[in-house]
Amino acid sequence: MELGESLQFTKLQVWLDWMVYWVGTSAIHRPIEFTKDENESLSPYAAELRAEALDPIVTFTTEDGLDVAIKHELKSSGDSASEIRIEQDFLWSISRDSLTDLDELMKVASCLQALVSIGTAKPAAFRRLQLFHPDVTVDEAGQHPAPIDYYAQWHLQPVAEISTLHPSKMLFWLPDLKADADIAAILKVFRLHRSTLSRVMATQFSTTMYTSDRLLNVVASLEAYAKARQVGGKLQVKLQWCVNSIGIPPRDFFKRSDVLVKRLNSARQEVAHHYKGVDDHSLDQYFLSRVGYAVYVMCLLAEAGVAKKVLRKVATNREVRFNLAQWERGLPEKYRSAT
């Protein structure tokens, strides 16, 4: 490898926090039979633990020849005498027959990370990342590639312990989507708008970002997104176009979108020019940035052509409604949405 030459690989595999819950499929089965004891109480007398590896859940090829898949894996542990444990997980696989720059593979991985983070409403950190190269194999014949573990000090760190995540707390999960077609379309849109997507996701991943910076990043991303869609005019025009482009009835999100747009516009001006009293509006800025984030997410999903029911599910999610309600508390009654 020469100085300045890009690192290249044929495949990248990445494991994400919360992925197993977002996929929503299990290969582990635990049938239990019960019997009555002498006190007529039901007690388990026979239990069986079964697991069978699943075929890839999602498989598609991008327009530039990248094969993308969600793969399933099983692991077992325990001494088989006192206990036995079976675990399952899902991972993203991104590959191409020819060598591909690591930077390109990582950009696709970051888009898929954003997808799971948006869907679960949780920051989905990289827990493990592996690379594959045709020259690195486990056998001398070169028939079996050996994984190369990739270590980095990621800005977003994995959670110490994954707790159960119920689908009702997610914006959407894989069963809501037409697996291959929707994921392929979403990935295409995410890659197209990766710059603004990364900026918006930073507002969700960072625990130290100022509230005012969260708002500025979200509004700037909405403005840049509208510009990328060939929308001209002032900021308020672009913001209104973003809200309108979602394509769901206002009653499903916010009945007076013009009020929301005007506030996003004015709040951005207040923060950017540091108007008097702006420091007293941090709570308003926080909830407004959260609502703006939901608008941006729905804009990208709408561009990808996902079903309206998915957009309505995002718009009516409990956390989204809570953020909207908290911001609306400062509005006159006639402008508030029915929650």
Folded structure, characterized:
It is a single chain. With 339 residues, the protein is an alpha+beta fold. It folds into two domains: 1-176, no CATH class; 193-339, no CATH class. The chain is 40% helix and 19% strand. The protein is built from ten helices and ten strands. The chain has helices at residues 19-23, 102-120, 179-192, 194-205, 211-228, 235-245, 257-272, 282-304, 308-315, 318-328; strands at residues 8-16, 28-29, 32-36, 42-47, 50-51, 58-61, 67-77, 85-101, 126-132, 148-149. A six-stranded antiparallel sheet has the order 6-7-8-1-9-10. Strands 2-5 form a two-stranded antiparallel ribbon. Strands 3-4 form a two-stranded antiparallel ribbon. Helix 5 (211-228) crosses helix 6 (235-245). The protein is globular. 32% of the residues are buried.
Level of helix content?
A: 40-55%
Overall form: globular
Overall pLDDT, averaged?
89
Structural class assignment: alpha+beta
What's the number of domains? 2
Number of strands: 10
Gyration radius (Cα, Å) is: 23 Å
Strand content: 15-25%
State the end-to-end CA separation.
Answer: 60 Å
Largest sheet entry: 6 strands, antiparallel
